[in-house]
Amino acid sequence: MANSGRYNIFGAKVVKLLPLLSRRISTSLLNRRSELSEGRVQHKNEREVSIVPKIERGPTDILKVLASTVGRDYTAAHYRYHDDPYLIPISNLSKRSFALSKESGRKSAKWIRQQHSNLFEHHVAEPPIQAFYPTPVFTDEVDFDESVLNTLINDSHLTDAMKVYEMLQNKGKEITRESKQSLLELIAYYNEVEPLDEEWIEERWYKTGILGKERQKNTWKENGLAEKIFKELDPADSKAYCAIIRGRAKYYQAEKAWHLFREAQAKSLTIDIETYNAMIRIVNFSRENSELRWQLLQDLLSEIVESRLKPNLNTLNSILETVSMMGNIRQSKSLSLATLAEFKSLGIEPSLASYYYLLISHCKDRGPVSSILVDILNEIKGKSFTILDPKDTFFFVTAMDICRNHLQDLDLAHMVNTLLHVGNNYDLIGDSYKESVYYRHFLALKCSLEPFDTFMDFYNKLVPNIYTPEPQIMEEILKSLELHEGYEYISQLWSDMIIFDQTYRATLVSLLLSIMSNYSPTTQPSKYLKNFADIAWKIWDTIETQSEEKEKKITWTGQMLGNIIIISLKADLIDKAFMVIKKLLQSPLDILGVPDINALRLFVEYAIKEDNGVICLACIQYISDAGFPETVELATTVFEKVKLDVIQVGRLSNIVGFNVAEKSPNSKYGESLNTTTQ
Q1: pLDDT tier at 53 (50, 70, 90 boundaries)?
Q2: Which of 26, 481, 624, 656 has the fewest CB atoms within 10 Å around its CB?
Q3: In Å, how far are 35, 48, 69, 324 from 45, measured between CA atoms?
Q4: Do residues 630 and 601 make contact, with C-beta atoms less than 8 angstroms apart?
Q5: Is 251:191 a contact under the CB 8 Å cutoff?
Q6: How many CB atoms lie within 10 A of CB 552?
């Protein structure tokens, strides 16, 4: 009760004070407003408020941030494929076919929209998005002016731009020099070949690897529209010369590019730095030996200095590319390092393409071992790159190739792989071909240098959604399995071979049978014997039922059939093994070579245990036909240990060429055989 009264008294005091506090607060706020209106407020610690500049955000920036918080799901297929087990491709061929087929459907839809544009007049979006609408068809009946040509040039619609240009000329309409110059630059850059639309991502992904393997040869369109426009720009100014020179140099028409280059210099025309860069790249096509090439390169660099032009990253990469192709390895190494140091002093930072050229200059196939990759990785460790040069996409695949074939360094390979997954560096993997080659080298290196269990952990993470091993890599995996006796993984790898459509590879099938036949249940758990026998007979069925029209058929070898015999016998499947013996007897001309005698000896031993004279004689017959010197030994063993009737003993004697009963004086068959012979 005392406490209760105390709290009541305290509460009453508070209630009485509230109106007074309220009046004081109101008065204070009124005075504050008055001071603010009159500007009489002074702050003890005045600070300027700086407004942060607006950061432009892209439409997918939020998605990128969200994606960065989630790691890659290695168990999921690429988003380009339908999330359905029956529609997720596994092999390299099916991945390519599925992706291109899906994009082909989009192409077909676009073609239908283009051919029947009158059926698609509805507004897809507001404001209208031009890419969603059919492209206009240009005919002689349609009236258009130069503005249409400029629009096509700006949108890089090369074929339509060339067509409209010729139609404008035929109609006698005037085309300004600026439009002709823009069209010349577009045609020279693409060499009159329509560029692949950026919309076709899959085609670009699978096509780039093929283009990258083409030889460097002259592909310039001789007497094409580019040369025609260049002649129309008479007198040609420096821009026209630079455009046509860069085009010829890009498509390796070196001789005429040099002719126009010297012609422009003779006319005292200004040549820009990109044209010099293009000429540097074709130095190796203009001189015979490395000394003359280096001299020509020095002359071009001196001209750049005299012209007071500022070199750029493209200049650095052009020089490094040219130096890397020179024949003198020692000179190539020293010049590449000196060039890189010189450009760094100019404040020009190298790109991944620069480091790629360093690698191919220092790490030659037949040259001394170089550890320059270690220095490069220490320099760029943890950095995120953006593409600055088309050859930037060659760095990672080349670096992994060097780790495997040049240095045999797994730790260095892990450093390369770590760098690949920093920021957006994976965008610089290039295309499907380079990605496949990159993981081919990485997987092969780990397979040869890591414990097999550790390797298989990485294999399960990577295969099949990110990388599908080629037959050569699968062969290396099987050899490593044999070395480490990783028999528990044979069933998994056989399943993968089926999925990857590699069961018709004779090398892989033969190697797999050899590994399974070497499995010894006396020293290893015998639980795998049945699985191995199942695999062996699936291989048998695959080869026996292969189509006659198949181009690459597997031909039976004696070694393969001998291994199947051993595997079957270890699994106590003597009837199955006897099928192989019958195959050997009935189709000897279809089989390359003969089985190992140990396989045939093992079959005889199992047949003796079964006391089966029929299959013993069949095997002895094949051993004799194959010319093995062990025929007599095995025939005598069969005669002594197997119950044979008189006819079988006579057949056995015919096989070995003498009376086997004479080898056994106590034999009950001796007299009857002699009588039969008489």
Answers
A1: confident
A2: 26
A3: 18, 10, 41, 63
A4: yes
A5: yes
A6: 8
Q: Are 581 and 543 in contact (CB under 8 A)?
A: no
Mean confidence (pLDDT) of the chain:
84
- Strand, coil or helix: 266: helix
DSSP H helical segments within 77-141, as ranges? 92-115
* Per-residue pLDDT reduced to its tens digit, 590-599: 889 999 999 9
pLDDT digits (tens, 9 = 90+) for 342-380: 999 999 999 999 999 999 999 988 778 899 999 999 999
In the block, tokens 């780990």 appear at 446
CA separation (Å) from 68 to 28, 30, 54, 61, 466?
A: 51, 52, 23, 11, 19
Measured CA to CA, the distance from residue 354 to residue 135 in angstroms comes to 40
Residues 6+ positions from 396 with CB-CB distance below 8 Å: 352, 416, 419, 420, 425, 428, 429, 430, 434, 438
pTM of the complete model: 0.82
Long-range Cβ contacts of 172-179 (<8 Å, 24+ apart):
173/145, 173/146, 174/146, 175/146, 175/149, 176/146, 177/233, 179/146, 179/149, 179/150, 179/153
Q: Are the beta carbons of 171 and 220 closer than 8 angstroms?
A: no
Q: Tokens standing for 296?
A: 């020509």
* 266 exposure class (CB count in 10 Å sphere: 0-12, 13-18, 19+): exposed
pLDDT at 31: 57
Angle between helices 177-190 and 225-232 (to 10 degrees): 150
Interatomic CA distance for residues 324 and 356, integer angstroms: 10
For tokens 């089989």, name the residue: 591
User: DSSP character for 610?
Assistant: H
Question: How many CA atoms, within 13 angstroms, populate the side-chain half-sphere of residue 131?
Answer: 4
